[in-house]
Amino acid sequence: MATILVIDDDHFFAELVSLHLLLAGHTVQVAKDPEEGLRAIVNGPPDLILLDLDLPYMSGFEVLEALRSDPSSRGIPVVMLTARKDEESYARCDKIGIDGFLTKPLQSDRLNEAITAALAAHART
């Protein structure tokens, strides 16, 4: 299974997603803010990142841009998590380079599908 980093400032949501991923057999790291998430990536890159779009002091867009501009993290698949349902947010993420986009509240089957698809696409490249 994969090592997945969850970057989300909503502690309850992050713990719920973490539990789901652990039960699915993944190794999980949780970061409560962008700084902690970026530090975790430097300390040992995960196989996949689940990234909240609305974070304190640095948006998910900015975190994604930082990941895509750094050669050491450019290839890590990122699935964006958000309560936003607007096409503009999806288009902006797609332009930066997103591997999946899920709206909250999450459905466990869609989360599993997005993770599987992102990891499979990454394995092919």
General description of the model:
- By secondary structure, the chain is an alpha/beta fold.
- It has one domain (3-124): 3-Layer(aba) Sandwich (Rossmann fold).
- It has five helices and five strands; from the N terminus they run βαβαβαβαβα.
- It has a five-stranded parallel β-sheet with strand order 2-1-3-4-5, sandwiched between helices.
- The radius of gyration is 13 Å and the shape is globular.
- The model has no long low-confidence stretch (mean pLDDT 92).
Write the layout of secondary structure elements.
Blueprint: E1 3-7, H1 11-23, E2 27-31, H2 34-43, E3 48-52, H3 60-69, E4 78-82, H4 87-96, E5 100-103, H5 108-124
Number of strands: 5
Going by CATH, the homologous superfamily would be Response regulator
Across the major sheet, the strand order is 2-1-3-4-5
Number of helices: 5
What's the assembly state of these chains? Answer: single chain
Order of SSEs: EHEHEHEHEH
CATH class: Alpha Beta
